[in-house]
Amino acid sequence: MKTCLTAIISSLMIFSPMAYADKWSDQFPHIKATGDIPGDCSYEKMSKKNYKGKTLKINTHAIPVMGEPTALHAEQFEKLTGAKVEVTHTPAGDLYSKAMVPFQAGQAPYDVVFGFSNFINDWKRYLAPVPKKYMNSPEMKDVTKSHMGVSSWDGTMYQYPVDGDRHYLKYRKDVIDNPEMQKKYKADTGNELRVPRTWKEYAQMAKYFNDWDWDGDGEKEYGSAEVMKKDDLMFAAFFSRSVAYAKNPRTPGGFFFDLETMKPNINNPGFVEALTDWVEATKYVPPGGTNFGLGDEIGSFGGGQTLFSFSWDDAFIAAMQDDSPIKNKVGAAPLPGADKVWNRVSNSWENQYNQAPYIVWGWAVGVAKKSKVKDMAFDYLCFFSNGANHQADLAIGRFGVNPFKNSDFDPNIYINSMGWDPEIANSYTQTLLDMEKSNNRVFPLRVPGVFEFTSAVATGTSKALAGQLSPQEALDEVAKEWEAIVSRVGKKAVQDAYAVGVKMEDNKL
Amino acid sequence: MNFKHKYFFLFPGLFVLIGILIFPIIFVVRLSLSGWNSYNPGLDYIGLENYIRLFTDDPRFWESFFRLSFLSVTTVILQYVIGFALAHMVWKDIKFKRFFRVLFLVPMMTTPVIMTVIWRTFFHESLGPVNDLLSVFGVAPKWLTDPVIAKFTVIIVEVWQWTPFMFLLLLAGLLSLPKEPFLAAAIDGASPVRKFIYVTFPLMAPISIGAIIIRLIEASKIMDTVYVLTSGGPGTSTETSSFYIFIKGLREFQMGYAASMSFTYLIIMIISLTIIAKVLTKVLLKE
After folding, report:
1. Which residue of B37, B40, B144 is in closest CB contact with A291?
2. Which of A130, A148, A308, B274 is the most exposed place for a label (fewest CB within 10 A)?
3. A307-356 pLDDT, tens per residue?
4. Would you call A122 an interface residue with chain B, using a CB distance cutoff of 8 Å?
5. ipTM for the complex?
6. How far apart are CA A471 and CA A226, in angstroms?
7. Which structural domains are found in chain B, ordered by start?
């Protein structure tokens, strides 16, 4: 009997997923929450590859955001396959040029290059398409339609999905859902305290909760933390504020430009209204908030300094980490909308509620066409985003890895592995899922010379935030610059590339 | 006697000179006549198009140039005054002279980018210690978010970082001065102030001109401080020429246009620094 029991227990240990998983999680504690998860690029599968004597060169972002997981998975990959992996860390602003200079010179100093998904148009001619083997893998089939689109160009995938990005609202649940606060807010302002549906409501609440100690921790809190530092991703924050006023589902054919004429929409009243709101927002950000980059925004909201924040996932994940003072006190919701939306065809405002998700560009990675170790490079990327690594990475805010697989929208992942409150986990996954399902999404601009366009937006909007120009003047300047860029690059080239993005926005791809 | 073989000895130096000085300049000039950018890599020929754009349609470049002139002249003047004062102080026989000489050099030996990150943390308006201390007096300057104050923040960091370089050059100059004029001044009973005005300062004039010109050349390339501290903001209020060229060249990848700006900037700097050197020589050496 005893022998029989031992045999049953042993066979259970061998064949059960947990026992299988433990074998790897002992060696690689990073995946201790799940163990290895079977798949084409699992730990088990990778351990059977032999890349001894081969070197993989990677250029990635600085530690921690994306740089830390790159280095961690490189170390794991080395141990499993015998390969040598050299990782170079580069500041975000230089990722583009660090790859582009050798690309244009016909060299491939790096086999794997990390960057942002909106680089795709400029980089695609230097990158190897993702091979069919990986495209057909179950892991790839799990990637959401939006992020398949973001990683691909006209049906060909050039960027291996390792991250999924979108902008959404983060708020202090312990304040917004607090009946006492709701009563006080109502008494003082006559308005309801609720998750803001519009940017105007957002501003009212942010102003009200600005510059006083509303959580009783002895420190002053503020209204909103936003990325306002020039050139530090600020243009994406501006687009997040613009979509509600300027993305009209009844006027397909281009959010950034009118696709037919390629006339910029950037200075139409919708965008101007958003910039006017943003200039107003300088009054309810923490001291120095107009110089906040993404790191400052994460630290500020994640550290409990502000009521609201919006932009990438990181601030939310940082707030929900175990060491956060506001763990399980935050909520996620769609970006606020607006009570009116600009109709660029009729040239008038439509007085009806509008909300549009912004599937913002995020981290992306590709394999150089001229790399001599493409197989190994793709294996590394496949390993990077395998089930176990991906779930473990999602739980660490500073890693910058955010949901991009359909299976990521299961709230149980966050409840069981990360200790999130079920209500928060549900609101988080539902918010992300709703964005995937929306028919009024805005995708990042992905045209040739994209940096010239976004840099012009950063310069113009930062002039408005600094009070150097009015919102209309600033955006007129941006529009003029955009026209000059279109003319330099060539109208046809920009138009053709923009058409691909418009197809996605108009739900035709 | 045939001395032609002597030219062979010149070749190594000549090759190095061509390789590291002449070739890059020629390449920049050629690049500036091309439309090289992210979507059109290659040395095509577009004539003077980039220069026409620069001179007729890019006020931002000229604004950044005038801003740079203000920042570099102000920082160099401050560095000269403070550097001279410190050098003069440790030139004398004071206690812990050696310690101070080393101490004053420390900022220059630190890595500029790292130190600027630390300064940025100091000046962080909600988390930094500077405003925390100043809050005792009820003030909280907007070090990095006010267009005017941000310029002075850049100046503070630059002066802190590079005054030691001025100090080093001026101290070397002071140590090399002949003793006799000072002995003569002492015999005549000159006060320390008169001794400084009539002996030390005139004797230091040639070294001062050299130090100021070297620092002006360096200061005119202010880039890392601006990059880390303010990214040229708020708005464009701290954007300098080199930072603007960096944005156009390596952010937006307009290599051809950035090359035309670099070459124009080089010409302007050569002309203006020559004029400044002439003026300083005339004023300080009374030639």
Report:
1. B144
2. B274
3. 999 988 888 988 998 889 999 999 999 999 999 999 999 999 999 999 99
4. yes
5. 0.84
6. 18
7. 60-284 (1.10.3720.10)
